[in-house]
Amino acid sequence: MGRIAWKALCLSLFDYKTEKYVIAKNKKVGILYRVVQLSILVYTVGWVFMVKKGYQEVDTSIQSSVITKVKGVAFTNTTDMGKRIWDVVDYIMPPQGESVFFVMTNLIITPNQRQDTCAENPGIPDALCYRDQDCTPGEAVVAGNGIKTGLCIKVGNNISGTCEILAWCPVERKDSPKSAFLANADNFTVYIKNTIRFPRFNFSKTNVLDTKDDAYLKTCHYGAEQPYCPIFSLGKLISWAGSNFQEMALEGGVIGIQIEWDCDLDQAPSKCNPCYSFSRLDNKFAEKSISSGYNFRFAKYYRNTSEVDFRTLIKAYGIRFDIMVNGKAGKFNIIPTVINVGSSLALMGAGVFLCDVVLLYLLRKSNFYRGKKYEEVRSNTRKPLPDAAISGNQGADPLSQLDRLGQLQTAET
User: Fold this and answer.
1) Where are the alpha helices (DSSP H) in 328-383?
2) Average pLDDT of the segment spanning 284-290
3) pTM score, two decimals?
4) What domains, with CATH codes, occur in the chain?
5) What letters, b where the CB count within 10 A reaches 16 and e where it falls short, cover 101-124?
């Protein structure tokens, strides 16, 4: 590449090149173009900026702490336990109050169990036997209560029996609950304190009203008029989840409490409010399913004066509450604003592309418009002039030389 070509290339770097626009006087295409532009504008302003707040920086890494306390007292009078008062320590697990807590509403008691030998429950398939050889000594009963001793215990003249086991005897009762033990538990109240923090904006808030009135939490109940009162009735929690408390208290279930924080930090902190929703999480439609309800077992241990340990086994039915917290916070930031504005301007090019397709390929006069939009330029290669033609005219007038050159070029073409 010659020196002149390099110089021309360097100078071309400072050239400004602009596009050539062709104005098409077509009303249909013009209306289509404006409709597309208007749609993009409405989408940008209405959806991106007003609804989705595309001008904000968003923090979804919410930090949350939940503290729960249940209050309520119940009275029962049964054959197994007699007259008894039940308070929070008796029916709440775990007692320290976490984001997951359990309220016992029904129970089956197997009292005075001691470590001894007794017959396994006949309802367990692995415990059935016909002779002592069916009960291998030292073998655990599958889904049972103890270890086989090697004896097959039969009642009366029955052909089959059950294996004798070493276990906590007598074994657990397999009764099914007939009615809710703590039927009045729907009047119990639960205090749910939720404190959240968005670390990106160093913003914190709680769902409890900021007041110095000590009697506020003792008299208020959550509702539309008191959204910052975190005191909920158990019966209302179940009804808001679409279930009946008395039916659910019989065999138990699981309730989800969702706390949603959607905070616009461009507004006052008082506008950042918690939104509650309630749902039943266990399989409430499978009424006769073997997996329906919710229960677990625990025991209370004692020791008598003879230094013999015994216990009371309790199979507890009840309602488990899972508290789930999530949310997001947004605040104005120039970077997402510029990005969304630039994206919207780029979308305007889609309108130009669509109208070009219609104008150049779908209309009757598409060939005409295509010819106006695109120009075809062809480069013609010219042969160099003979040296004789140039040397023969060295002494001639410059104007006559130019005229001679024009005539030669005309003759060649």
Assistant:
1) 334-357, 366-373
2) 60
3) 0.76
4) 20-55+334-373 (1.10.287.940), 63-120+171-332 (2.60.490.10)
5) bbbbbbbbbbeebeeeebbbbeeb
